[in-house]
Amino acid sequence: MKKICGWTKLLMLMLLLIFSAPAAAGTHKKVDAKTFVIGSPDSITVDFSTLTKELNSVEDVLKSGKVDGATISKYVSFLGDVRSKLQENKARLDTGLKNINRRIDSLGEMPKEGEEELPVIAEKRKEYNEEAVYQKGKIAENDLLINRIDELTALIVVVRNQALLGNLLIYQDPMIYPSNLLKATGQFLDFCFDIIKSPVTWYRALTDEQKEAVDSNVFTVLLAICAMLAVGYMLRRLIIRHLGYKQNLTPPPYFTKVMAAFFVACAYGIIPAVLLGSFLVWIIHTKILIVGLFGQVLSSVLYYTLYIFLADTVIRVVFAPYNGMWRLVNMDDTKARKITSAFYFSFFVVGVSNMLQHIASEENYTVELVYYLSLINSAVKAFCVVLMVKRFFWEEDTAGDAVEDVGDDEDFADAKTRTAFRVIFLASVFAVAVVGASAFGYPRLAGFIINRFLLSMLVIGAFNIVRRSVFELLKRILLFNFWVKTLRVRRQLIEKLDFWLGVVLNPIFVVLTVLALLSLWGMSTDLLLQSMWKLLFGFKVGGVEISLLSILLGIGVFFASLSLIKIMRRKLFDNILSHVEMDDGIRHSLASGFGFVGFVLAMFLAIAVMGGDLSNVALVAGALSVGIGLGLQGIVNNFVSGIILLFERPVKVGDWVIINGEEGRIKQINIRSTEIETFKKSSVIIPNATLLSTSVTNLTHSNNWARRAVTVGVAYGTDPKKVSDILLECAKSNKKVLKNPAPYVLFQNFGASSLDFELRCYTSDVWSGWSIPSELRYEIDRRFREEGIEIPFNQLVVHRGGGMSDIMQAPFCCMRCPQQSESGATAAEKAETKEKKEEKSAKTASVRKDAKNAN
Strands 544-546 and 539-541: what pairing? Predict the structure, then answer.
């Protein structure tokens, strides 16, 4: 219940902020608008003379050089509001000019020379022409003011850059001179001694009453500190035990990691921070403890200790050195521990150096000492940068393995080592440049560069963690069973939606990160935001106004409409048309027609969202005709052909067709093409125009009937009537064969070795009729065996020599086996060739023997 109440309060607070922000923004705009806008919002009238004077005064202040950052920010906001109002006024003036031109056009064409026009029409034409000239003058004045505001905006950028560079390039006596360095070092030693003896000096400066108060409250303060530490320790253990890391066997989701990291951060950092902050507030309100150098040292120590605690806590929960399963970054345990220890060391030394510089500045020590401490601070931060880069990129095992081991990963290890060397080298060069800039007399420039660099790394890391957390949260929302069970959304659509959310959100996070980095480095982010606002919400190229946001919204509306149409088409096909008694092809055609109409509506809706004028149908038709003439004729031809296929229906979804030698089933008729699935389960995509212009064999156009035939041969001497009766009995016994039309048998031919018959029958289902010929052959073979009817082999007469006695008959399995006929015909020739080879070998052996005896 407590959790629910907490969430309820948080939700109410968010709603209050959401509804209060627009009201505050509207009030602010109204106050600014009073300076230059007179009239109601429906009819804005700009006082050009007053506004020109105000812009002149802004320009004078900017050029004087005596303007601070807050005043410049006010000017930026003022100019942005004025420009938006002028843009609105320009749109109204353009609309008024169009209306006047329509009135002039309604009066007809100007009379030719020698022709007279009616006085009433002539008077109206003169009046409207004067109104048009006046309106054009107002538009010109409005454009001049907009150009003036753009010039002032560019001037603000120049002034800001000059102020930034002027502060950073302030030169001081460099520390590279030994005399300056020795003098500053002596002052630093004196400063450290002052800090060490500051408690004694502070106590001696107190009055007797103050000393008595301090002595009497020391024990109470120490007891309160111990009690606060005990309470903080107990709260930390309680949070860690119930809300911290769990010993899971499987890695938890990233969002769960972030939530656990938040509670662990509360336990290790926020509770000590609250205790230190409370003590810091208490000593500030206690005037005794903030007197002199000791008070500054005490408050600074508490402040920077608080900073170190919070920074260490963030690193602890991000890298989780002893809980690898809950780590927010991907790395091994050893590397995480090394990086964590390097961060702890860096935060400590940077905190100490910043604290010393802060104390010296607040206590008005010499400029040389502050410069010396700034140099030390820059050097410490530069060293920490190199240390962190080395811990991140350099792996000690990699260098050793690259030298000792020779394997498949040698090239990878060498490339990784080279990359680490390059990054560390660049970081070292950066560190040397920062320290050198500070040593050569530009401490502010060096401090600005190193501080902004460190903050940039923190901003990039924070945005990366937030981005991954948002993606994990959205992914968990998309995985709810509500989408599948209640809304019947397919898992594939959810995966696509997850992908497109990444495509949309990643650029948003990148833009936010870039804006934050530009703001850190001193860029005019308010002006950049105004430029982005103009880029998103409208800018003119010639006479055409382009809005990137409208274009993106139009594209989003188009694809969202297509997705909705697909869902509605599936609902129409599965839930509505499935309960209506009609042919499957008609059902598919109606669903496809609904998809075509939805596509056209989605296209027009997207054009309307982008800001297109659908009323000018002639312009749209002309553009389409030009597009068709330049190269869209094929697409439009296929589109129209698809519509013809749906209405004429020469083929429909589910038909068995043969097109250009491709045989298969119509799977889908789309806007541009038709998909045919062959019986080998491969898809053939045929353009709709080709489907209409090519001869198509549709085996299921009017019905699903089909004729099947089985050819069989019997030996000579068999009774043909008996064979015909057996074949008809086999056909009639098959359940898939139709009784009407009845099967019949044809005595086709007197073959070379057999009497040839053909059994023909019909089936009402072409899709299940594939097995009928096979089933009939099995049955015919069984009946022929029972009746003693012989299916003969093919016979061939082979002549050997010239006598009739050498005639022999050779049975063959099939006339389609040419290799068997060939082997049978050449058997005698092979025998003769073998005898000749034996005689030749004998003669050769005899010759060799005679030659040997002669030798």
Answer: antiparallel
Which residue bears the tokens 């407590």? 2
Tokens of 295: 């008070």
| DSSP letter for each residue of 377-424 | HHHHHHHHHHHHHHHHH--HHHHHHHHH--STTHHHHHHHHHHHHHHH
* E-assigned strand segments in 717-817: 744-750, 755-763, 794-798, 808-812
Answer whether 548's CB lies under 8 Å from 507's CB.
Answer: no
Pair 675, 635: CB distance under 8 Å? no
d(CA 201, CA 187) in angstroms, rounded, equals: 19
Residue 268: name the closest of 318, 205, 303 by CA.
Answer: 318
Strand pairing partners for 762? 707
Q: Which residues contact 360 (CB under 8 A, 6 or more apart)?
A: 191, 369, 370, 373
Amino acid found at 736 = K
Q: For residue 288, what is the DSSP state?
A: G
CA 8 to chain centre: 33
> 459: Cβ–Cβ under 8 A, 6 or more apart, which residues?
513, 516, 517, 520
| Helix or strand run (H / E) with residue 176 | none
For residue 546, what are the β-bridge partners? 539
Query: Hunting for tokens 């498949």 — which residue is that?
Result: 408
Radius of gyration from C-alpha coordinates of the chain:
47
Q: List Cβ neighbours of 712 (8 Å cut-off, separation of 6 or more).
A: 727, 756, 757, 758, 759, 777, 780, 791
CA angle 841, 843, 849 (to 5 degrees): 105
Which amino acid is present at 26? G
Phi, psi of 97 (to 5 degrees): -65, -40
pLDDT digits (tens, 9 = 90+) for 216-265: 777 777 787 788 778 777 887 888 887 878 776 677 877 788 888 888 88
**Cα 831 to Cα 652: distance, rounded to the nearest angstrom:** 65
Q: What is the pLDDT of residues 121-164, one digit of tens each?
A: 888 888 888 898 988 988 888 888 888 888 888 888 888 777 77
d(CA 789, CA 720): 11
Which residues lie across from 761 on neighbouring strands?
708
Angle among Cα 364, 369, 370 to the nearest 5 degrees reads: 65
- Average pLDDT of 323-338? 85
Single-letter amino acid code for the residue at 259: M
- As given in the structure block, the two tokens for residue 805 are 């006695």
Q: Contact 548/536 with Cβ under 8 angstroms?
A: yes
CA atoms within 13 Å, Cβ hemisphere of 490: 9
Token pair recorded at residue 502: 């990444």
